[in-house]
């Protein structure tokens, strides 16, 4: 049952971030509500990955605040933070020759006892994540003998096994074939129905429009708009975001929407 409160809202308040003299985020203020499925879209260099990394605590911020519910991210220990929020990076290469099951099991690390033992419940959560990403036949295979798309499924399964209330995905869908992409979206919809907060960065505007009820548009390190699909998927807003012209067909029927860009 979906949560009726804001305990797992992910809120960014006046967040800016710079690296090497380049401003990657400019005074970002936005919120992703408990029990919602959110797409984060925009051109290359718009700040999507940086926003997710700051939101997950992987990048430090000096001004503003990132909160999960009423908890300020900077006030939490790494383990406390990991129990609340998880991040799946894209294009990951594993530095060690893990078995697939061992790599997925790493997602349970924030939940283990002091001896690092997996409980029966942990094992079941790992099994469920492996099954969700169709990795049953790969469990004993080395992750470094997998294709890039298969590695991406391991990374996603690891995040699913972490089972944090807030889940952030950084363009992972781009590495999945259509079958696994649609299966993952189906799983995400079930997770948000149970109260998870999910944010997915992606480049496929049409896919975002068809499958995500909430969409945030980014450009040049700022938010163009954060709102409903109906508010975001207009020719005016997309043109403002991508500096292109757009024709939108079947806008009233999300599963059939077609978006045609032109210069």
Describe this structure in words.
By secondary structure, this protein is an alpha/beta fold. The protein has a single domain, classed as Rossmann fold (3-Layer(aba) Sandwich). The protein contains 9 helices and 12 strands. A hairpin with a 2-residue loop joins strand 4 (65-68) and strand 5. The mean pLDDT is 92.
Provide a compact summary of the structure:
With 263 residues, the protein is α/β, with parallel strands linked by helices. It has helices spanning 48-56, 78-84, 100-105, 120-132, 148-162, 178-193, 205-211, 229-232, 235-242; strands at 10-19, 22-32, 37-41, 65-68, 71-72, 85-88, 166-170, 197-201, 214-219, 222-228, 245-249, 258-262.
Number of separate helices: 9
Q: What average pLDDT do the residues reach? A: 92
> What is the first-to-last residue Cα distance?
45 Å
CATH structural class: Alpha Beta
Strand content: 25-35%
* Cα radius of gyration in angstroms: 18 Å
Unreliable residue stretches: none
Q: Which structural class is indicated by helix and strand composition?
A: alpha/beta
Strand/helix succession? EEEHEEHEHHHEHEHEEHHEE
Annotation, overall tally of beta strands: 12
Attribute tags:
263 residues, alpha/beta, Rossmann fold, 6-stranded mixed sheet, 9 helices
What is the secondary structure topology, with strand pairs?
Blueprint: E1 10-19, E2 22-32, E3 37-41, H1 48-56, E4 65-68, E5 71-72, H2 78-84, E6 85-88, H3 100-105, H4 120-132, H5 148-162, E7 166-170, H6 178-193, E8 197-201, H7 205-211, E9 214-219, E10 222-228, H8 229-232, H9 235-242, E11 245-249, E12 258-262
Parallel strand pairs: 3-8, 3-9, 6-7, 7-8
Antiparallel strand pairs: 1-2, 1-4, 4-5, 9-10, 11-12
Helix pairs in contact: 4-5
